[in-house]
Specification:
alpha+beta, Heat Shock Protein 90, Ribosomal Protein S5, domain 2, Rossmann fold, 4 domains, 8-stranded mixed β-sheet, 22 strands, about 35% helix, about 20% strand, elongated, binds adenosine-5'-diphosphate
């Protein structure tokens, strides 16, 4: 028999499975049962949509058979089966290619990968020395056997099989010091594992179970009889009564179906009766999947029509801004012939999507109102998605999302909503102030912040690159506009002060012009300000592009380099103001040096690089050695 090699990635994963020290090895059974159920789903769906497929759907079943002498555990289904090519592609390569990519970035010793991803079929190698897959595709005359003893490859050969479907035969490993593999050859133990993980599977999972029963005609003599029974309750979890479902069941179902090792942050189970009736079981994950913020991430909910899976990731059921939600929808009002193409026009789907969106929003609002800690955890994982969605699509969804946003309040030292900001606004304050920077600590040291602290105004500290784009896209909240503390003309001063600074600027117009020329027009203007308290200088901006935005846009791989229109502001009350005025009169060369240093200072405070660090350091050295 000629051996074929596994694809490189699969081989790695296989090694991992074979040598696994993962303690929860029993999950292999849930993976195989779930594959069997998927295969039946596929054929079930075909039988409902293709007249040529004639089968009695009542016969659908999964059989689990143990042979203690041969040490085999066999899982058989009468689902769609696989052709030779399908055996090759499906079992010779691992489907979820992201799994290993993720794995390598992380600690290679972290064998929890199995628990995290549910790596499907291969997990059987945790408990088996040898795996044989005998399969016959529905409608085909030919059956094949795929066989592998692990990493050294696999073989495929023709074989005999009467009926369509697949049988997976595992030859169970010998017991070791750490693992009692024989448990998987014990009918009752296997039954318990199936009940634990696969109870909701919609097709009967049948097993031969030994029972003690009274001998016929006897009152006290027992005999052991073997009965073929269905071990699962077969009722899909989402169709069960909510009151009868434990958290553990919800969570198990989530792990099983949505490939996440952690428990979900929130489970939403809802049934709607009306124009369009449906059950939905939705989960908000507790952390962002590793590929969530990449374009590889695919949003969507599973779509069932009366218990039959018709689409695995129906993206039309979720708006982009709630793309993190996992789950399923089951409706009896849907046409089975729905396709990705006709989906968008489907009235029922639209209706369901709308309801689901409302439901998710309401659940998030409730969480925000009643379980702040949980909401903050949610926001940590997915807040970026909400903020990004406000800014995306020209602010189309800002009204939907504005009350779900949180920003860091400098005054309260925690994340707050915009409504909370408004509720705590000071008298005379008419804007929502924000400041941008790398960290809260860095922003806190910005010269521009001083006057707000002085006035006891709250300032939102924005540290994520998307933040400022978000507030700009919103423009205003409840009639209050947003203002960057670094933008010009905040008009926070009283009239007397403003007039004084205005006069200073007028009187020293020529000097300020000269300073601007010294800076090669890097700045749009140089002027005196009264916004600073102790600090000598700061940079502010005019127009819609702030310095933080310039930084973000500089980092983007675009040709055009957008620049903020910067203004160098000098504290009118600082001794430096007098100093430069004197220099202007006496020593213009010296003034040029001072100007360069002041500008460099302002840039450094903003976290911006200097174009001429050597020149600046030489000037400073000259000054201090005088
Ligand atoms: P996943 O189920 O997540 O796709 P698996 O490694 O478990 O990954 O299985 C790989 C593929 O093999 C499946 O997608 C399916 O196409 C096929 N497969 C596995 N088990 C069966 C089965 N019992 N019947 C038909 N096809 C199967």
């Amino acid at each position: 028999m000629s051996k074929k090699q596994f694809k490189a990635e699969s081989k790695k994963l296989l090694d991992l499975m074979i040598n696994s020290i993962y303690t929860n090895k029993e999950i292999f059974l849930r993976e195989l049962v779930s594959n069997a159920s998927d295969a039946i789903d596929k054929l079930h769906y075909r039988s409902l949509t293709d007249k040529k497929v004639k089968i009695n759907t009542d016969d659908f079943a999964i059989n689990v058979v143990i042979d203690k002498d041969k040490r085999t555990l066999t899982i058989s289904d009468n689902g769609c089966g696989m052709t030779k090519d399908e055996l090759e592609t499906n079992l010779g390569t691992i489907a979820k290619s992201g799994t290993l990519a993720f794995k390598e970035e992380n600690n290679p010793k972290d064998l929890d990968i199995i628990g995290q991803f549910g790596v499907g079929f291969y997990s059987a190698f945790m408990v088996a020395d040898k795996i044989q897959v005998i399969s016959k595709a529905y409608g085909s005359d030919e059956a094949n056997i795929w066989e592998s003893e692990g990493a050294d490859g696999y073989s495929i050969e023709k074989c005999d099989k009467d009926t369509y479907g697949t049988s997976i035969i595992l030859t169970i490993k010998e017991d070791t010091e750490h693992d009692t593999f024989s448990d998987y050859l014990d009918n009752n133990k296997v039954k318990d594992i199936i009940k634990k993980y696969s109870d909701y599977i919609r097709y009967p999972i049948k097993m031969d179970i030994e029972e003690e029963q009274l001998k016929e005609g006897s009152k006290d003599e027992y005999e052991t009889v073997t009965k073929n029974i269905t071990v699962n309750s077969m009722l899909p979890l989402w169709k069960k009564n909510k009151k009868e479902i434990t958290d553990e069941e919800y969570n198990n179902f989530y792990h099983n179906n949505f490939f996440d090792y952690a428990d979900p942050l929130k489970t939403i189970h809802t049934s709607v009766e009306g124009l369009c009736s449906y059950n939905a079981l939705l989960y908000i994950p507790d952390h962002a999947p590793y590929d969530f913020y990449t374009k590889e991430y695919e949003k969507g909910l599973q779509l069932y029509s009366n218990g039959v899976l018709i689409m695995d990731k129906c993206s039309d059921l979720l708006p982009d801004y709630f793309s993190f939600v996992k789950g399923l929808v089951d409706s009896s009002d849907l046409s089975l012939n729905i396709s990705r193409e006709t989906l968008q026009q489907d009235h029922q789907v639209k209706l369901i999507a709308k309801n689901i969106e409302k439901k998710i929003k309401k659940e998030l609002e409730d969480m925000l109102a009643n379980d702040r800690e949980k909401y903050e955890k949610f926001y940590e994982a997915f807040g970026m998605q909400l903020k990004f969605s406000v800014y995306n699509n020209f602010g189309m969804y800002k009204d939907t999302l504005k009350d779900l946003l949180l920003f860091y309040s400098s005054k309260q030292g925690k994340q707050i909503t915009l409504k909370e900001y408004l509720d705590n606004m000071k008298e005379g304050q008419d804007k929502i102030y924000y400041a941008c920077g790398e960290t809260h600590d860095k922003i806190d040291l910005m010269p521009q912040i001083e006057q707000f602290k002085d006035k006891d105004f709250d300032v939102l500290y924005l540290t994520e690159y998307v933040d400022e784009f978000t507030v700009q896209a919103m423009m205003e909240y409840e009639g209050k506009s947003f203002a960057n503390v670094s933008s010009e003309n905040l008009n926070l001063d009283d009239e007397e002060n403003s007039k004084k600074v205005e006069k200073e600027n007028k009187d020293n117009k020529e000097m300020l012009e000269l300073m601007k020329t010294t800076l090669n027009d890097d700045v749009h203007e140089v002027r005196f300000t009264s916004r600073l308290k102790k600090h000598p200088v700061c940079l502010t901006t005019e127009g819609p592009i702030s310095i933080e935005m310039e930084k973000v846009m500089r980092a983007m791989p675009t040709e055009e380099k957008i620049k903020a229109s910067a203004i160098l502001e000098i504290n009118e009350a600082h001794p430096i103001a007098e100093k430069i005025k004197t220099l202007y009169k006496k020593d213009k060369d010296e003034l040029a040096k001072y100007t360069k240093v002041l500008y460099a200072q302002a840039r450094l405070i903003e976290g911006l690089p200097l174009d001429n660090p050597t020149e600046i350091s030489n000037i400073i050295c000259d000054m201090i050695s005088k």
